[in-house]
Amino acid sequence: MDKIVIKDLEIFAYHGVLPEEKVKGQTFVLTAELFCDLREAGLTDNLDKTVNYAQVCEDIYKVMTGDKFDLIEAVAENVADTILLKYELIKKVRIIVSKPEAPIDMDFDTVCVDITRKKHIAYLGIGSNLGDKESYLDYAVDQLNKDDYIKVSKVSSYIVTKPYGNVEQDDFLNGCLEIETLYTPSELLAVVNDIEQGAGRKRLIHWGPRTLDIDILLYDREIIMEEKLIVPHVEMGKREFVLKPLCEIAPFAYHPGYNKTVMELYDILREDIDVTDIIKND
């Protein structure tokens, strides 16, 4: 990916753990690498097709001279967030914050924190089979959009589906969402769990009735195997109530476990073939 580099921007600010650092201040040096597609800007010579790096420098200055942080790790994180949230064109940033006047009683050049942050694409499944089902799904979309670190970019149609499992209960209303997020997978899980609780979700029976269910189906092309989170979602390749709405909004989204697109998985499911058999024979 192309990038714009702002190198060694010097800003006097008041960050540090020691009290005197927040009183006397010191010079910090920041380098920002802004990853974005610059092809159209190069072809058209149009400023609107690129990132105004003078404005980015002003934004960095405001962050670094606004709050007083103990750690340059926090400085770097806040600068990265500000840039990613403000500029649609920028998909990833690398931020290096240097502290050449750090209180170290030895000869040294500088102390640096170097972080890389990016916008992630994730797909969520949403479902409800209690109360006003459509309102609960709309509530999920609305709450996700209210979060500064999440943008809902696509919403599928809602479909009525039969409940999964052996618990007798009402039919579900299901859908899928595409989101862009700055959250890590575990952070995103905490957010969607909070939204479920806000809708009155109670986890009493496995595969039982629920006001709102939000599942992380895919997160970039990552495979995550943790105690509380498995991505891609287990058995999503066998569930029409996931694949049908997901295929509507993201037919070419990639399942890194099966090495197939959502459209391919949906076609396999409609042929009444177990996707795990296909994988074993590949």
Q: How many helical elements?
A: 9
Helix-strand topology string: EHEHHHEEEHEEEHEEEHEEHH
The CATH class of the largest domain turns out to be Alpha Beta
Structural class: alpha+beta
Q: What percent of residues adopt helix (DSSP H or I)?
A: 25-40%
Question: Biggest β-sheet: count, sense, barrel?
Answer: 5 strands, antiparallel
Distance between the termini: 32 Å
Number of DSSP strand runs: 13
CATH superfamily of the largest domain: 7,8-Dihydro-6-hydroxymethylpterin-pyrophosphokinase HPPK
- Looking at the overall shape, the CATH architecture of the largest domain is 2-Layer Sandwich
Number of domains: 2
* Radius of gyration based on Cα positions: 23 Å
Protein topology:
Elements: E1 3-13, H1 19-24, E2 26-35, H2 39-44, H3 53-66, H4 72-86, E3 92-98, E4 112-118, E5 120-128, H5 133-146, E6 150-155, E7 159-161, E8 172-181, H6 185-198, E9 213-219, E10 224-225, E11 230-231, H7 240-249, E12 254-255, E13 260-261, H8 262-270, H9 275-281
Helix pairs in contact: 3-4, 7-8
Commentary on this structure:
The protein folds into two domains: 3-118, 2-Layer Sandwich (GTP Cyclohydrolase I, domain 2), CATH 3.30.1130; 120-281, Alpha-Beta Plaits (2-Layer Sandwich), CATH 3.30.70. The mean pLDDT is 92. Helix 3 (53-66) packs across helix 4 and helix 7 crosses helix 8. It is built from nine helices and 13 strands. The longest helix has 15 residues, at 72-86. It is α+β, with helices and mostly antiparallel strands. The strands form four sheets. Strands 5, 6, 7, 8 and 9 form a five-stranded antiparallel β-sheet that branches. A four-stranded antiparallel β-sheet has the order 1-2-3-4. Strand 12 and strand 13 form a beta hairpin. 34% of the residues lie in helices and 28% in strands. It is elongated and about 70 Å long.
